[in-house]
């Protein structure tokens, strides 16, 4: 089991549901916890939504970057290397 799972099961002193993953606000024992991507707790729907938007922007930027690098590779000319025989007198 991973360390977070052990923590959740009581095998560790730290608990991954102690604080919001975005703003680090303490999560109360009797308050709602909003989860995202399996193991990221948030104190509110707003914090969770902000993290989703941050992740979406990062993914979009990564995809644009990947697309540009792929297009650059397709457009870049092959190096001009000439082959042949060289005669030295």
UniProtKB/TrEMBL annotation:
A zinc finger (FLZ-type) spans 15-59. Keywords: Metal-binding, Zinc, Zinc-finger. GO terms for molecular function: zinc ion binding. Residues 15-59 form the FLZ-type domain. Pfam families: zf-FLZ (PF04570). InterPro entries: FLZ1/2/3, Zf-FLZ_dom. It comes from the Eukaryota. The keyword Lyase does not apply. Residues 65-89 are annotated as: Disordered. Residues 80-89 have a biased composition (Polar residues). Transmembrane segments: none annotated. Belongs to the FLZ family. This is FLZ-type domain-containing protein. It comes from Lactuca virosa.
């Amino acid at each position: 089991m991973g360390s977070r799972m052990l923590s959740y099961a009581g095998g560790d002193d730290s608990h991954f549901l102690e604080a919001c993953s975005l703003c680090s606000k303490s999560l109360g024992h009797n308050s709602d916890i909003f989860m995202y991507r399996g193991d990221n707790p948030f104190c509110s729907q707003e914090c969770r939504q902000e993290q989703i938007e941050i992740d979406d922007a990062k993914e979009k930027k990564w995809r644009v970057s990947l697309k540009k690098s792929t297009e650059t590779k397709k457009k870049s000319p092959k190096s001009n290397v000439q082959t042949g025989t060289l005669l030295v007198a």
